[in-house]
Design goal:
The structure is a single chain. Strands 1-6-2-3-4-5 form a 6-stranded antiparallel β-sheet, with helices on both faces. The termini are far apart. Helix content is 45%, strand content 14%. It is globular, with a radius of gyration of 18 Å. Strand 4 and strand 5 form a beta hairpin. It is α+β, with helices and mostly antiparallel strands.
Length: 273
């Protein structure tokens, strides 16, 4: 199996701004298309069913399915270039079919960027990983509060409250977005409980947490969050986990996270009970 070291980008070649905006580009496309499609739920669901009935359509958005696992780095660049070209042809969308396909492409692309342009590429530079998170969160939040709110003023707080309508029919339906207010009381998570959650990630599902980053760490994704799903695979002879997390602060999409990200999130969260 190819080592993930081949995806590491030298520190002096990392463009935090460009990578952050690449994330945001695909998330923005998906947010708009999901919102437009939510106005036509029956037609949307029929189109999605038609799309996933095609044998060439992959059943998930994971790179191992859409592109292939552990390929040479240039193969993922080629895939993203092809996706960008296809999205350009679908922009502006002329039909609901265009929106379903464009959202599907954007969702798959953001997973490739996450895994091969951020997680693997910057694994030797955790400070730069954090800079990307902070920067793209800031860009996305600003867009949600301004451009998106102007486009869809009826949306509460300018947020999309049904972000996961573009999911394969075979996938487990995501949990509903956490409410802005909750009736439970926060319960502190001990270090031993963090360890138990990480050893048994299935116990995260169905629970809500409240995240508050430590003093001195600037993050926009404060507030309620929940783990929507997780996947497991063997990577370089070890078990590798990836989580899809719904953050109330974002509201537009599921955010992929690795085990290290989940550990940080848990250590600075309380359980809502």
């Amino acid at each position: 199996m190819t080592s993930i070291d081949i995806y590491t980008v030298p520190r002096d070649q990392v463009d935090v701004e460009a990578l952050s905006r690449q994330f945001v580009k695909y998330l923005q496309i998906n947010a708009i298309d999901v919102q437009e499609l939510s106005e036509h739920p029956q037609r949307r669901d029929a189109i999605i069913a038609e799309l996933y009935a095609r044998p060439e359509t992959k059943p998930t958005f994971w790179p191992k399915d859409t592109v292939g696992a552990d390929l040479p780095p240039e193969k993922y660049d080629e895939y993203l270039a092809q996706v960008d070209a296809a999205i350009e042809q679908l922009t502006p969308p002329n039909s609901l079919e265009d929106r379903v396909l464009r959202s599907h492409l954007a969702s798959a692309a953001v997973m490739v960027v996450y895994q091969y342009k951020w997680s693997y590429a910057l694994r030797a530079h955790p400070d730069l990983q954090n800079q990307v998170i902070i920067r793209y969160s800031a860009i996305l939040n600003d867009w949600m509060k301004n451009e998106f709110r102007a486009l869809y003023p009826k949306q509460t707080n300018g947020m999309v409250h049904n972000p996961a309508t573009i999911t394969p029919p075979t996938a487990v339906n995501p949990l509903s977005p956490p409410p802005t207010r909750h009736s439970g009381q926060p319960k502190a998570i001990t270090d031993s409980e963090v360890g138990e959650y990480l050893k048994n990630p299935q116990t995260l599902l169905g629970k809500q947490f409240l995240h508050a980053p430590p003093v001195g760490v600037e993050q926009d994704y404060k507030g309620l969050w929940e783990a929507d799903s997780y996947s497991v695979r063997m990577l370089d002879g070890r078990v590798d986990y990836e989580f899809l997390v719904r953050l109330e602060a974002f509201g537009v999409d599921l955010l992929p996270m690795g085990m290290g990200d989940m550990e940080f999130l848990l250590k600075h969260s309380t359980l809502v009970v």
